Amino acid sequence: MARHVTDETLLDVLEGTADPESRRHADACADCAERVKEARGGRALAREAEVPEPSPLYWEAFRRNVGRRIESDSTGRGWRWAWLPVVAAAAAVLLAVPALRPPSAPAPLLPAWSALPPADQDAGLSVLAGLDIADADLSAVDGERDVVESLADLSDEEARAFQDALSNREGVL
Fold first, then answer.
1. Residue 78 pLDDT grade (very low, low, confident, very high; cuts 50, 70, 90)
2. Got the DSSP string for the chain?
3. Mean of the per-residue pLDDT values for the chain?
């Protein structure tokens, strides 16, 4: 055995109930043998000591105190334990209900521009096609307003007229 016997094993060695390996170590190791000898002497002193029997008044007071504590513990804490099964059942139901529902079908994937009207019905596409100046600079020329600002200020009627004009020029662009 590489280590010395523990205090618990030491008592087992003293009483003769320890495993053979611990007993051999306690016999062979000088430190452990000394500890067994000290424990044997302490046990002998404890057996020789005279402990007086408490008076009958002590036992009566002890009995009353134990009875009072049992009564106060049963009334003070009992109701807390009564709720434990109810809480456990509620938790089990809350966890089981979502698991018992059949899996729902995944949400259908929406097209990227589902909020926009179809291309054949979108009047704004022809306006955008007319403004398709990908690499051009839309900044103002000589202090004039740029194209975006000008288009933003158009009334509904002017915008329709502009759209009609652009749609008539589709083949030209």
1. low
2. --SPPPHHHHHHHHHT-S-HHHHHHHHH-HHHHHHHHHHHHHHHHHHH---PPPPHHHHHHHHHHHHHHHHHHHHHHHHHHHTHHHHHHHHHHHHHHHHHSPPPPPPPPPPTTTTSPPGGG-THHHHHHHT--TTS--S-STTPPPHHHHHHT--HHHHHHHHHHHHHTTTT-
3. 77
